[in-house]
Amino acid sequence: MNDKEIVAQAALEYVKNNTIIGLGTGSTANYFIEGLAKKIKNENLDIKVVASSTISQISAIQAGLTYISLDQIEAIDLYVDGADEIVLSNSIEVLKGRGYDLIREKLLASASKQCIIIGDNSKIVTKIGDNFPIPIETSPIAWKITQKIIEEFSINCNLRKNNAGDGFAITSYGNLVLDCDFKYGDISSLSKKLSELPGVLEHGIFLNIAHLSLIANEGEVKTYKSI
Ligand code: 5RP
């Protein structure tokens, strides 16, 4: 098993019967989805799931999980997702968004009684933005004005291409993504500033949301708690 699979297995320990679980997006989250399907079958559990993207929704249904629509729930018991960057400070800081669906990911993470961010050691950084630009979900009519505003205080701010590079990345809700690099300042101020911009539907900085982070390094999983 690789570290992504090992950490996903460790997160299964937090799954309880008769709960609603939010599923994240990405390769690490996929291991969790597969593991959850096996656990439910082996232990005959009654668990319903919602997903943070169309792709995870399809994976969940294909794995045989009982899927409920996001607009049918007010809260979820547990949310498990991967991350692009994790800062292990007193309160765990997370950067997400290589999988586009920021509105849905932050909605589920915020609505969860327990939010667990899982990753391998490569995800640990000293500050958000070290390895990846900050993704911003914006609507097709707002992207140009939003880009112009953000350019006033960023280094780069570009519309994300799709994987084939022949078009643009489109979220589950038909939105676009701007990938932006900022001169590092206070991450909390940046997060607030971005949230206040009218064209920003959501951005990838997740502060004060994760309760726990599980990190796998060479087969060993360590647990970090937000204070
Ligand atoms: C999707 C995400 C992913 O969780 C993040 O990109 C990590 O992916 P992976 O587990 O494949 O490394 O934020 O928006």
Q: Can you walk through the features of this model?
A:
This protein has 227 residues and is an alpha/beta fold. The protein has 2 domains: 3-124 and 207-225, Rossmann fold; 134-203, ACT domain (Alpha-Beta Plaits, 2-Layer Sandwich), CATH 3.30.70. Helix content is 28%, strand content 29%. It contains 6 helices and 14 strands. The protein has helices at residues 3-11, 27-43, 54-62, 102-110, 143-151, 187-196, and strands at 19-23, 47-51, 66-67, 76-81, 85-87, 93-95, 112-120, 134-138, 156-159, 176-181, 200-203, 205-206, 212-217, 220-225. The strands form 3 sheets. The chain has a 7-stranded mixed sheet, sandwiched between helices. It has a 4-stranded antiparallel sheet with strand order 9-10-8-11. A 3-stranded antiparallel sheet has the order 5-6-12, with no helix packed on it. The two termini are 31 Å apart. Ribulose-5-phosphate binds at residues 24-29, 81-84, 96-99, 105.
Output the keywords.
227 residues; alpha/beta; Rossmann fold; 2 domains; 28% helix
Small molecules bound in the structure, each named once: ribulose-5-phosphate
Number of strands: 14
Unreliable residue runs: none
Strand and helix order: HEHEHEEEEHEEHEEHEEEE
- Report, as a whole number of angstroms, the end-to-end distance: 31 Å
From the structure provided, what is the oligomeric state, counting identical versus distinct chains? Answer: single chain
Short synopsis of the structure:
With 227 residues, this protein is of the alpha/beta class. It has helices spanning 3-11, 27-43, 54-62, 102-110, 143-151, 187-196, and strands spanning 19-23, 47-51, 66-67, 76-81, 85-87, 93-95, 112-120, 134-138, 156-159, 176-181, 200-203, 205-206, 212-217, 220-225. The strands form three sheets. Strands 3-2-1-4-7-13-14 form a seven-stranded mixed sheet, sandwiched between helices.
